[in-house]
Amino acid sequence: MSRRLNSSLCVFLLSAAVAFAAPEAQLHYMAAGQPDSAVLLAPPPLPHSAEEAADMAVVVAACHACSTNDAALAFGEKKFSIFTFTPAIGQFLQPGKLPQTEAFFKRLQKDAAAATDTAKDYWRRPRPFTLDPSLASGKLEKSFGYPSGHGTEGLVLALVLAELFPERCEAILAVGRNLGWHRVMIARHYPTDIYAGRVFAQAIVREMKSNPEFQRDFAAAKSEIAGAQQSYPGAIQE
Length: 238
Description:
By secondary structure, this protein is mostly helical. It has a single domain (about 40-230), classed as Vanadium-containing Chloroperoxidase, domain 1, CATH 1.20.144.10. The protein has 11 helices and no strands. The chain has helices at about 1-25, 35-40, 50-65, 70-75, 85-90, 100-125, 130, 150-165, 170-185, 190-210, 210-230. Helix 8 packs across helix 10. The relative contact order is 0.16. Mean pLDDT is about 90; it is low at about 1-25.
C-alpha cells in the first residue's frame, strides 16, 4: 500500500512540475525549436584547428585593445532591452512611454533568447575564456557560446526596431551589431559566434513575421508610435 502511495505521489509531483514549468516554455511568435540552428548554421570552427586559432587571435587582439571605458560599456550591456537603442532613436523612447511597444519587444526578446539557448545547447561550443583562462574577467557565464546570445537578440531587436523607426535604420542596426561585437572585446565570444548570431537573428525575424500574433502586435506597436508622433511632433526624430 505504501509503495503504491509513493508511486502515485511521484507521478502527481512530476505532473505538477511539468504543468508549472509549461508556461515558461511557451513562445509567443515561434514554434519551439524554430528556426533550427542545426540546419541553418554552419558548424563553428573545430577544436584545435587553424580556423579556431585565427578566431582566438581576433579575441586576444580585441581584448588587448579594449580600453577601461570600452570594457565598462561591454560589461554594462550584460542585460539589455529596447531602451539600449534610445540613443539611436531619441530620448522619446523611455520606459512607460510606449507600453504596447515595450511589451511587444519584451515578448520578442524572450522568444529570441529561448531559440538561442536551444542553439547553444546543440552546438555546445566553449567560450574563449574557457580555452584561455588568462582572458577571464568579471562574472563568467556558464552557458555555451555559439551562436552569441547578444549577437542574436541584439540584431533581432534592431531589425524590428528599424522597421518601426526607418528614419533611424542605420543607427539602430549599428547598436544591434555592437551589442554582439562588444562581447568579443571581453572574451565572451569569438567573432564566428557573433556572425552566426546575426544569421540566426535574420532567420528568427523571418520566422516571427509569418506568425499572425506577431503581425497583430507589430501593427499595434506601429500604431502606438504613430499616435505618439502626432501627439509629440518631432519627438522621435530628435
